[in-house]
Design brief:
The N terminus is likely disordered. Strand 17 and strand 18 form a beta hairpin. The strands form four sheets. Strands 2, 3, 4, 6, 12, 13, 17 and 18 form an eight-stranded mixed sheet that branches. Strands 1, 5, 7, 8, 11 and 16 form a six-stranded antiparallel sheet that branches. A two-stranded antiparallel ribbon has the order 9-10. It is globular and about 50 Å long. The chain starts with a helix and ends with a strand. Helix 1 packs across helix 4. It is mainly beta.
Length: about 350
């Protein structure tokens, strides 16, 4: 059995390593993600996260919200048991709750390096504020969105923390978790990037899909990542057959379809049913055997939701934090946007 997984890993190692990178696209955030770029990470917007991080207790996630290894919930093949999404909001993170450059103080060979100009593990809030601030009204419903460069399932929440006077505005993961925003409705949307055809910039209307919402006691409301990853081999074998974290990561990426697909999984290989035909996949690069791989294209669409801004909230300046707890990897992605609530 090991030989089969090892063969897939050998193919994976032709690629430069990458893991589940994602970032905010709406509203504008300090790392400069955008709807136009979607999951594209050539500007290194997707390099703010925490790894290696696991839940401290037992899984609490209901089965309907699982995203990887969905038919296994116990025993030695339940390889995602300690991954962040199995108990949303409980796995610890580095820094202020806005992300750490390169995933934390130690670099790993899975895309765990800092953006240009930042130190390994540096806090996201050292990035400069944008010149224009997003303004929201109390009691309003607001559009938010994120995009992924590599898909590790799991789910996400949107939180706010009022800015204070101390370091990093007194922001903390605790503050964000005490102020989780609720989602508006049971729908979400897929918004593709604009594209050029014969000299004209064209757009595609948003695609509405059902949202899988999860209310977690003491942790607020979350939504499952609506894009299923692929299944090519049993990731439990990666944990059994490899002791080094980097090797486990390479194997896990291969099992999920690294460089096997062009953004969507082959028929019959998705971790859970697609919400739209072709809305699936793990990650893709342009790879030529013997010459290596290039490209940081990511998925060419954004995952859009509506969130409720409380009516009774204090007016003032806030940080909006997006937290993506992965299920296929021991990682949590976070970014922050500066907003003013009136």
């Amino acid at each position: 059995m090991r030989s089969g997984v090892t063969a897939v890993v050998a193919t994976c190692l032709l690629a430069s390593s990458v893991d589940a990178h994602g970032h905010i696209t709406i509203p504008p955030a300090r790392n400069n993600g955008s709807v136009e770029l979607a999951g594209n990470c050539e500007n290194l917007a997707c390099l703010w996260f925490s790894q290696i991080t696991e839940i401290p207790g037992e899984p609490t996630l209901p089965d309907y919200a699982r995203s990887f290894n969905v038919n296994v919930s116990s025993g030695e093949d339940d390889w995602s048991r300690k991954m962040p999404w199995r108990a949303p909001g409980t796995a610890p993170v580095y820094g202020s709750g806005c992300g750490a450059a390169g995933g934390g103080p130690k670099a790993y060979d899975n895309g765990g390096f800092p953006p240009d100009g930042y130190k390994q593990g540096e806090d996201f809030l050292n990035a400069p504020e944008l010149p224009t601030k997003t303004v929201w009204k109390r009691g309003s419903v607001q559009e938010v969105a994120w995009a992924t460069f590599a898909n590790h399932g799991g789910g996400y929440s949107w939180r706010i923390c009022k800015k204070g006077e101390g370091k990093y505005y007194n922001a903390s993961e605790e503050c964000f978790q005490n102020n989780v925003l609720t989602f508006s409705g049971d729908k979400q949307w897929i918004r593709y990037t604009p594209f050029w055809q014969w000299g004209e910039l064209r757009t595609i209307p948003d695609y509405e899909i059902p949202a899988v919402r999860v209310d977690i006691k003491g942790r607020g409301q979350w939504t499952r990542n609506p894009v299923p990853g692929c299944y090519f081999c049993n990731q439990a074998e990666c944990m059994r057959n490899y002791s080094k974290f980097d090797d486990q990561q390479h194997c896990s990426q291969a099992c999920s379809g690294l460089n096997v697909t062009d953004r969507s999984c082959p028929p019959g290989t998705t971790q859970f049913p697609e919400a739209l035909p072709g809305l699936s996949g793990y990650y893709t690069q342009k790879c030529i055997p013997g010459t290596g791989c290039d490209g940081l294209a990511g998925f060419n669409y954004n995952i859009v939701d509506l969130v409720n801004i409380p009516e009774d909230i204090d007016a003032g300046d806030y940080l909006l934090s997006w937290r993506w707890d992965c299920e296929q990897s021991a990682q949590i992605w976070q970014n922050c946007a500066d907003i003013s609530i009136e």
